[in-house]
Amino acid sequence: MYHIEKEIYNQFVSLRKTTELIAQNQHKITLLTANKSTIIFVGSGSSYSIAKSASVMMNLRTSKKSSAIAAGDILLNFSSYKDLLQESLIVSISRSGSTSELVFALELASQNSDCEIISICTRENSRIEAFAALNMVIPWAFDQSVCQTQTVSNLFASTIMLTAITAHDTDLEEEMDSISHFADNFMEKYVDILKSIGQSDFSHGIVLADCELAGIA
Predict the structure, then answer these.
(1) pTM for this one?
(2) What is the pLDDT of residues 116-131, one digit of tens each?
(3) How many angstroms separate the CA atoms of 73 and 41, rounded?
(4) DSSP 8-state secondary structure symbol assigned to residue 62
(5) % pLDDT > 70, the chain
(6) Which residues of the chain have pLDDT under 50?
(7) Nearest CA to 61 among 167, 200, 213?
(8) The pLDDT value given to residue 131
(9) What is the pLDDT of residue 180?
């Protein structure tokens, strides 16, 4: 089995660990979100795609105002975003925690506004930890092969749990907790079909999605 294949199949195991970690931080998350009317998701590259989905989800399921901003945009246009960042909660989404535009954007925000920051990252002891009031590290989700596999699914799962806690949505929390129970049947049902599709002759693909999944797609 290829390394990337192992990481794809391992997603249900890593997702279980991730949802448990976020649940363990429920009290801290509640304290940080309780008095914030604005929640801003920040990321770069694929993490920004996750941020877009997370922002839509937060707007749909809570009374908070939420938006997604690319870290590089904050870095280049901080003066334009400064008022928006005031008294906001920034949720930083990152695989490495060392992307320069994200590090500098969070540094600017923390030094020039009264925002608070939650960091969700797959690397321990990353540079962005210094700016966060709450660091949630999920090293088991760090991909050694292609970062758009369990890294993305686990970072997105983290934002789902964050939204569920903010919305006091216990049904959504329970749904996330139950994902791993469906793993074996899910993979057994679809793996051969997906292998057949992957081995077929095509030159490009189109992915369709709406609402929360639009950014992820």
Answers:
(1) 0.92
(2) 999 999 999 999 999 9
(3) 13
(4) S
(5) 99
(6) none
(7) 167
(8) 95
(9) 79
171 token code pair: 């049904």
> Which residue do the tokens 């679809």 mark?
190
Give the contacts of 149 (CB within 8 A, at least 6 positions apart): 4, 7, 8, 11, 143
Per-residue pLDDT at 147: 66
C-alpha distances in Å from residue 100, one per residue of 53, 110, 129 = 23, 15, 14
The C-alpha atoms of residue 121 and residue 119 are separated, in whole angstroms, by 6
- Pinpoint the alpha helices (H) of 62-178: 71-76, 78-85, 100-112, 150-167, 170-177
CA dihedral 149, 155, 159, 161 (to 10 degrees): 90
- Report the length, in residues, of the chain: 217
Residue 35 sits at the vertex; the CA angle it makes with 32 and 37, to the nearest 5 degrees, is: 105
